[in-house]
Amino acid sequence: MDIDIFKDILVPVIGGLGIFMLGLDFMANGIQALSVNRMRAFLAKAAGTPIKGVLAGTLITGVIQSSTAMSVMVVGLVNAGVIALRPAISVIMGANIGTTLGNGLIALPLGPLGLILAGVFSLIYCFAKSEKVKNIALAGMGFALIFYGLNLMTGGLRPLRNLPEVMALLQTLTADSYLNLLKCVFIAAGVTAMIHSSSATIGIVMGLGAAGILDWTTAVAFSLGADLGTTITSWMASLNLSKNAKRTAYAHISFNIIGVCITIPLFFVSMQVLEWAMQFFGGDPAIPVIVDGKETFPLVPVAVGLYSTFFNVFNTLLLFPFIGVFERVLSRVGHTDAEDTEDFSTPRFLDRKLAGDFAKAVPAVQQETARHLQAGAMFLDIARSSKKAPSDPGEHYLATDILSRDIRAYTAELMKEDLPYDQLDLIASLIEEADFTAALTESMHQVARRVRREKFSSPAQAIVDVALSKLDASLRQILPTYGISDPKVPAGNVNLPEVEELRARTLALGPNAGAAERGTILALLGSIERAEILIQRIDAERKSVNRQSVLARASARKETRPHALGDPGLSPVPAE
């Protein structure tokens, strides 16, 4: 029987692979469009402990069906400071388990139904008016195309068995020894790294195994390599992000590498266990089934999916007790002295236990807001390239932004319906102050960025120095403990000039400074002017409510409240 390589092999294999990967993309996009924001919010809230992190990672990855998307999401959340390194490691572990649910679905024998299901969902997508229905149809279409593409690949790969040259080449990829096993693992890892999808690699392997091109143990070995190669995407996603984001990607890589290194010596023993377990899932995967007069091996995809699930669950159970060790080791990767400085992304005074006690919660908010102001003042150190300043203005601003959100959320929780008006008014004042503080920090960030980006000539630098000293002095109005005792002013000046005078000096620089320098200084003066307005607004907001008086009355109410329960029948304490 003559084989038309183009029509019988290339067309169905390349077409099937393209449809398979398109289906993966459609399904992931549809599901993520429906729920990715909820998933992200759920993850940020749920991943508080390692156990919760594993469960959250498993659940979300099982829903969105992409460990790659999940790992990239986790890296992004760590970069934003929403999740710490320790729970992020556990989420990555859970993501590896969650993605195996998709491998199990791929193994289902739904190939012949794939095309008709894809057609049905495509029609729904085309005629749907609701965006929600469109996304559901898109996910369903992708789900169906996965099976149809896999079915096409299996049919296109089957004729390869009749080509002696191909079979001779593939015989060198038989996992019959540890050396050949390593070869299969590294080839699969390389393919997965190139196409950024372990599911696609496993789909190809399942097609090769079902067609009888690869024996079932070799197909399983390739799935092991796919788990290794999928770590590359999260590493690439972390390249331009924070150190903790990079460490999260390193956790993903090291977790899978350790798992593969432990599993490889046990591979042939595990194959015996898998062969026994397959008795409960249909029988021996090496026994062919005749379909239309041709041999197929429908149980090979089941064996691959089962092993992939076992590997990731085993790996998680084995390494979960060492999450603390992972965190300690990874926290030293790329560690610098700057990382020993205070972490402003984490509140220091906002104790949840105090939230029910107004008289104690309000001072905590005031302390945290003052700490936020101190973090904002550090942008002046950054602008001056001080050695004690944070090295990255962007990361420092991100930390202050996270702190600002925590302050506002904590303060808003204090606003109970049964509070007296004066206490509600004080809470509203605190929220406004926190908002002005966040805006001031943003202006200070702009000041630091503009100074750091431009190289100034000596006359221009003199104006910049005076402008920064002016902002130093203004900050003392709301931050009395600010660390600079006396503003640095040019010799001969008693008072710091106003912004208008500095603007006039800038315009008069003429040939002593380039247009870019003057433009930067003018923008800098605009940011300083906004910062000074916000400083005045913060000061006015603090004076708009007599906070000490409100707190004193709140404390007095708290002390007299137990006496108001003078009736023994109302006593919360059981009578003796």
UniProtKB/TrEMBL annotation:
PANTHER family: SODIUM-DEPENDENT PHOSPHATE TRANSPORT PROTEIN 2B, SOLUTE CARRIER FAMILY 34 SODIUM PHOSPHATE , MEMBER 2-RELATED. InterPro entries: Na/Pi_transpt (IPR003841). Keywords: Cell membrane, Membrane, Transmembrane, Transmembrane helix. GO terms for biological process: sodium-dependent phosphate transport. One of its GO terms (cellular component) is plasma membrane. It holds the Pfam family Na_Pi_cotrans. The chain crosses the membrane at residues 12-31, 43-64, 70-89, 101-124, 136-157, 249-268, 304-326. The keyword Transcription does not apply. It is a multi-pass membrane protein. It is found in: Cell membrane. GO terms for molecular function: sodium:phosphate symporter activity. This is Phosphate:Na+ symporter. Residues 552-576 are annotated as: Disordered. Its main location: membrane. The keyword Cell membrane applies.
